[in-house]
Design goal:
homodimer
């Protein structure tokens, strides 16, 4: 079996965002229309209800751990049910939480070598003392079992694969043209399986485009947690909170001909769940037309604290 | 006038700490004995109830902004009452919150040149786009007015001064002997004044020793927020959650002959308030003997959300 706990369901900055006063952020601050605060994108997965792996470590990790009892220390004076972390890219909203995981705790941190190299270049991540924290390079397109610092298997298997995306914002290099220096491996998706019973799901919190390869890969699967950042490509501009399009940020829309609802419609995926949802996205409002549309298309909108058994 | 809002009253890791199961952390998680969660050390100060400066930016800044209405955007689609940040050292618990202050917001960030240089070496802080965020070097022992990005005065004046301390943990260099490469300016204290009426207080969240110079400086003042990390020097070891002493970490004890209660006893300071309190410190338990002792000695124990008018 696998159990998934959504620690954070929002995109970078969370919902509300600290300096955003747009419609959804305002509603969430006022607790109106059934909206609730959402922290930044991260899930935890366990195969035994005891040890958990985090998938991405958001800047909100401290409050996420406090809010979810499953993440509390269970025994001894220093303990955590968190065995390690798997990173899908180098975005601040996916790596800054590593800074919270200091204090002498054994951990294994899995990432693409591109991501490891930028963590290494940033000495602030030295708070993760190598006596306790083992940084492990993740090969692509290979199934392997996640292991804790002492190399004890977790019962969780992972296959990582590159997906269309974008280099992290803080690593963009404008001199490198319109893709800002993006390379293969800057954004990855994951197939996460139970070693025991073989059940699996996909976790793809950022994806710029549905390729044929990717569609083949996820087709027929039982569950997917997928990039739900924006309802439409120009949402930041039309909400007047920014200029960047979804494509510029490396994200597919939910709606439209080139959107994820359309792209996944005929892929025969049983449970489709949006995660990494930006605070501008109207699907965050339970009674909105857009929420109705995604639900009619067979999608759920994830929320902080959501538990899924597989 | 000055108004002080305590955003976070705990030392690094907060209380409870994520992987700590010692007495106080356990009580806080269970909500027992009047204990409450405390986030990591930071205060906000305003002279006009509209614009605020942060003093230190903790990893918990996202949740601190959400919890305190004074920090919410008040108008327009992008807005924040936060005009800037002043840093007292380069510790993760004082700088990681800068990563939360992304999203196109004008800010000025004041720090010692030592701290600016390590921020510059860590490219992850490039999320603070220089079009919006102005990094300003703070001279020591000079009174100056904090100004926002557009150089409009805040009505808050600051004088920074070096205090005995330690280089940030992630910058320690064991090859440099027992002080790990610590230099002047790695830890500073601040005198924070109202430009309007001249009232002032001291904010010294880390201090390894009370020197004669420092005692002279703070003597007779109306208020001090002072390093309350540990009750006693070997508290981490005796709580069995670590080995480091307070001295090793650059902090004075509250208690004892070399402690802050003793050192500040005869300095005629009207309001003495502990801040940056570690989760092992029994003064965090309202009904503890140690809390009684600090209160009998004229100290208050700060808490998240505490407001002080000066």
């Amino acid at each position: 079996m696998l159990k998934v706990l959504v620690l954070g369901s929002a995109a970078g900055g969370g919902s509300p965002q600290w300096n955003c006063n747009s419609h959804v952020s305002k509603l969430v601050r006022q607790g109106l229309d059934g909206t609730t605060p959402r922290t930044q994108s991260s899930i935890a997965v366990t195969s035994n209800n005891k040890e958990w792996f985090l998938f991405n470590a958001s800047p909100d990790l401290g409050s996420q751990i406090l809010k979810n009892k499953q993440m509390h220390p269970q025994k001894d004076l220093r303990h955590s049910p968190i065995s390690g972390v798997v990173l899908t890219n180098g975005d601040v909203d996916h790596v800054a939480g590593l800074l919270t995981l200091r204090e002498r705790q054994n951990l294994s941190v899995y990432a693409h070598k591109r991501v490891h190299s930028v963590l290494k270049e940033n000495s602030i991540f030295n708070v993760l003392n190598p006596d306790y924290v083992d940084r492990r390079e993740m090969s692509m397109n290979t199934n392997f079992e996640l292991k804790n610092k002492d190399n004890v298997g977790s019962g969780i298997e992972v296959e990582a694969f590159e997906v269309p995306g974008k280099i992290a914002l803080w690593l963009e290099d404008e001199s490198k043209g319109e893709n800002f220096g993006t390379q293969e491996g800057d954004t990855i998706g994951l197939k996460i399986s139970s070693k025991d019973d073989g059940k699996f799901f996909f976790y793809i919190p950022a994806c710029a485009e549905m390729t044929n390869d990717l569609a083949d890969r996820i087709s027929g699967s039982e569950m997917i947690l997928f990039d739900g950042t924006l309802w439409k490509n120009d949402e930041m501009a039309s909400s007047k909170v920014g200029e960047k399009t979804g494509q510029r940020m490396g994200h597919m829309n939910n709606s439209g001909e080139n959107g994820s609802m359309h792209a996944l419609k005929d892929l025969n995926i049983k449970n489709k769940i949006y995660i990494h949802i930006n605070t501008t996205n109207p699907i965050l409002i339970p009674n909105s037309d857009e929420r109705k549309i995604v639900e009619e298309n067979g999608w759920e909108v994830s929320y902080d604290g959501m538990e899924i058994n597989l």
